Amino acid sequence: MVRCALAAVLFGSTVPVASRLVDRTSPQMVAGLLYIGAALAVAPLVGTSARALGNLRRGGWQLALAVLAGGLAGPLLLTSGLARTSAATGSLLLNLEVVATAVIAAVAFHEYLGRRVVTGIALVTAAGALLTWSGTPQLRLGALLVIGACLCWGVDNAVTAQLASVPPEHITLAKGVIAGTTNAVLAVALGTPLPGPGLIAVALLTGAIGYGASITLWVAGARDLGAARGQLVFSLAPFVGAAVAWTAFGDHASGTQLLALGIALAGALLVVGSGHEHPHSHAAIDHTHEHVHDAHHQHAHAHADVDVGVGVGVGVGEPHTHRHRHEPLVHAHPHVPDLHHRHAHDHAPHD
N or C: which end of the chain has fewer CB within 10 A? Predict the structure, then answer.
């Protein structure tokens, strides 16, 4: 949960900056530079090893879909929307990414939501509707473009939360290199002149913080919480973005925005304590992801093929990453739809 919350703060604080960048160049150029900045931020963590290339190949169609929806279409729609609406309104509308993520995760990947999460989604939807249908036709078009970005990122979020075989920083690199370069080349092809060094530097730094670090943290956190819950925690981002727009950039805080903020915040807070408990089974599986030695990870390390993370474990640092096997297991404990708990529910467990 901490990773998703930190990702929200980093992304939310950069949305008003991206809004100002769009005023000085085209949405395509800003979208491209933001994701190139993200790629530059994570490149030192990835390197050019054969293992990195193998991880990207294992991502297959899921990684390709994440790059197209989340890296190419999403930022282009967002920057186009920010050119037509205020930074604060655009930031608050990003709460609808929660709705898109939850619906897609539940329908396409059978992720369990529960009453609290469904109620939270309904409140966030109401807040988004309040913002969308307020203002001039130009503002409404901008709002619809931001909503389109939310739908693209909903697809991206639901897919990447399932990609246990690809480390988060590798996903971010693929998005940055492929989608960022494509959007930048598209901007030049459409006649956008190259921005000055100062604007390029600000855009790359904004992308490194708001996209590179943020995406990497969110993917890692969503694997522990599930896509829907991870995105509900990430819905702190619009509040951060609105606060930055109101304070640092002097945007006017309208009554509609404040009311929408309150409704959406109430919905986001419902995710706290939304886990459930019931007897469930784990099938045998071999996979690779970051983990600690908990009830689901009771294995020995026969070799040194371990990427050590932060912390100290018994014999090897924790958390760490390596390929490992889970034996069949049946038990009951409170859980959320993380990598090890994406099972069907024959009845409605309690939230």
Answer: N
DSSP string, 176-220: IIIIIHHHHHHHHHTTPPPPPHHHHHHHHHHHIIIIIIHHHHHHH
The verdict on pTM exceeding 0.85 is: no
Q: What DSSP element (H or E) covers 281? A: strand 276-282
Under 8 Å between Cβ of 88 and 192:
no
Determine contact, residues 32/184, Cβ cutoff 8 Å: yes
Per-residue model confidence as pLDDT tens for the chain (351 residues): 678 778 888 888 888 888 889 889 999 999 999 999 999 998 888 765 555 566 667 777 888 888 899 888 888 898 888 888 877 777 778 778 878 888 888 888 777 777 877 888 788 778 777 766 655 666 678 888 998 999 998 898 888 877 766 777 888 888 888 889 999 999 999 999 999 999 999 999 999 998 888 888 877 777 666 666 676 677 667 777 777 878 877 777 788 878 887 887 787 777 655 454 546 465 666 656 555 566 555 666 655 455 544 333 334 555 666 666 666 666 554 444 555 445 454 555 555
Query: Rounded to whole angstroms, how far apart are CA atoms 96 and 93?
Result: 6
Q: Which residues, 6+ apart, have CB-to-CB distance to 338 below 8 Å?
A: 223, 224, 225, 226
Please choose, from the candidates 3, 83, 76, 89, the residue with its C-alpha nearest in 3D space to the C-alpha of residue 264: 89
**Are 80 and 312 contacting, i.e. CB atoms less than 8 angstroms apart?**
no
Sorted by sequence, the CB contacts under 8 Å of residue 9 that are 6+ apart come out as 236, 237, 240
